[in-house]
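#struct-help
A.M.: can someone run this one for me? Single chain, 182 residues.
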Amino acid sequence: MAEYSDTTIVEMFRVGESKDFAFTLLVQKYQERLYWHVRRMVTDHDDADDVLQNTFLKVWGGLGGFREDAQLYTWLYRIATNEALTFLKKKRANVFIPLGNVEYQLGNTLASDPYFNGDEIQAKLQKAILKLPEKQRLVFNMKYYDNMKYDEMSEVLKTSVGALKASFHHAVKKIEKFMLAD
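D.P.: on it. Structure tokens below:
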């Protein structure tokens, strides 16, 4: 299948008769990257699928009005991030779990997840990441796993580059401390 540029996909989506095809191209192009971003936030495969489905529903509803003042991937990433954060907040509220226990529950979910195929060190890293405050966890995942530049993260998270660098630095220090413990 030919590779279509983001601009071409958006233009095709705006033309009524090729809307479904353009959306299919968009999903095929970004589904896996967005899935892993969401999965690292919510840890559970089924939850990640649900969040990703909600993300693409929002994308379908908003793509016609996409202003192209940001890159398409940045816009998609922002939607996926917001959907994942909303999901986690609802999960906390619905289960009445104290905030400190959410990470413990997510860690247990990771340990029992049949889709997790990491070794012991990867599992320990994931547990360390889950212990981070939500913003530091998000910034760490975006920088470490998605290799995003700070200016791209700034667009997605609507915060300054300096604040992002500080969050990443603090996250790395906390992860190092956790990894060296025991």
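A.M.: thanks! The radius of gyration is 18 Å.
D.P.: also worth noting: The chain has nine helices and no strands.
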